[in-house]
């Protein structure tokens, strides 16, 4: 155990791991925020009555869902650079691809929240003389938001758990930093990989578990 | 050349990708099968509130669902040998996928079990069914039918998660891709990578969709 602690106290190891955490959280937060904004728009397009729009958004959703995110990362990492001479920073590629994926998931949540709303909600509102705008403002949107928020929070933990993928395009996220520390400390301390990866496992749990609990709590509270 | 893609390279690399795709399918199938078993076991332990096992299953589910597969793999492959347990890459991959998937499948089955109504169980009991018969003929068939959409989504999710297996030296599609792209041909390699993942995942996705539709049509699970 003492040897384990010494790995983290050595040099800037602990600080570097925290920088890895920061990059992970920063990329997740940026991607979730962008996904929520674009997802709301795409979700509204999904329930439009225009068949072409429905087909296009449906195709987008299915195409994103069938591909591993890692493949999408590689696509946007190599294709623009090779074919159009556009070079993007790895972190930009990461946020772009995560947003592309998150937008699809968010749009599906929005679609689900709106289409599952019973028709009588709107009809009752109209019957008591509310205008269309008032029905949306006071009846539809508040309920849709309650249905959406647990999903958005879940999307956040899914995003955090997806960030290790950017290890493959050489972003210095938590795992990459861990690997570098193991490479150096491992020469002196052969338990380094056990403790460092174990610690990173614990850090991820620490990032995701409270968020998961919050989502479960809200879901329960708003069930009725 | 075809649409800016060098067909010659494609022909040469195709067998390598084909082999890797087969390996990917095989490892994914093992991982998914194990995760179904683990998931079912954990969800039943919680459903029947078996002392000890119940809290163990709950803790495991939270751990599995709140940590990424890549960390599980790094720990299994690089961490465990330090405490005397050395596993090869494919074993790590299957164990990692089963560990992750078990948590997700347990939640899918739990939702299914919770959907079996009180009246169904009371009717079974009043007919004098034993506990085993209840599980076999009343509870599981209904719970599994309700769980199908979530199990389908989890299976697709797990198949996609196998894409990280190259970090534990499993020669899967991404492994071949990373190896070949060192010498260029990024368009061709990306094309092959994409096509092979489609070939693997799309049929599974379509089959599950059909199955779900049939269950819905027959009104099973509602």
Tell me briefly what this model is.
The complex is a heterodimer of chains A (224) and B (222). Chain A is mainly α and 224 residues long.
Tell me the number of helical segments of chain A per DSSP (H or I, 4 or more residues long): 9
* Extended strand count of chain A: 0
Q: What's the order of the H and E elements of chain B?
A: HHHHHHHH
CATH fold-level label of chain B: MetI-like fold
Q: Which secondary-structure class do the elements of chain A indicate?
A: mainly alpha
CATH architecture of chain A: Orthogonal Bundle
- Radius of gyration of chain B, rounded? 21 Å
Q: Which stretches of chain B are poorly predicted, pLDDT < 50 over at least 5 residues?
A: none
What is the architecture of chain B at the second tier of CATH? Orthogonal Bundle
**Oligomeric composition of the shown chains:** heterodimer
State the helical fraction of chain B: over 70%
Mean pLDDT of chain B: 89
Number of domains of chain B: 1
Would you give an account of this structure?
The complex is a heterodimer of chains A (224) and B (222). Chain A is an all-alpha fold and 224 residues long. Chain A has a single domain (2-221), classed as MetI-like fold, CATH 1.10.3720.10. Chain A has nine helices and no strands. Chain A has helices at 2-9, 13-46, 51-66, 69-84, 90-115, 119-127, 132-162, 174-185, 192-221. The longest helix of chain A is centred in the first third of the chain and has 34 residues, at 13-46. Chain B has 222 residues and is mainly alpha-helical. Helix content of chain B is 77%, strand content 0%. Chain B contains eight helices and no strands. The longest helix of chain B is centred in the N-terminal third of the chain and has 41 residues, at 7-47. The radius of gyration of chain B is 21 Å and the shape is flat. The model of chain B has no long low-confidence stretch (mean pLDDT 89). The A-B interface holds A 65-71, 74-75, 78-79, 82-83, 157, 161-165, 167-168, 175, 178-179, 182, 190-198, 200-201, 204-205, 208-209, 212 and B 4, 62-63, 65-68, 70-72, 74-75, 78-83, 156, 160-164, 167, 174, 177-178, 181, 186-187, 190, 193-194, 197-198, 201-202, 205.
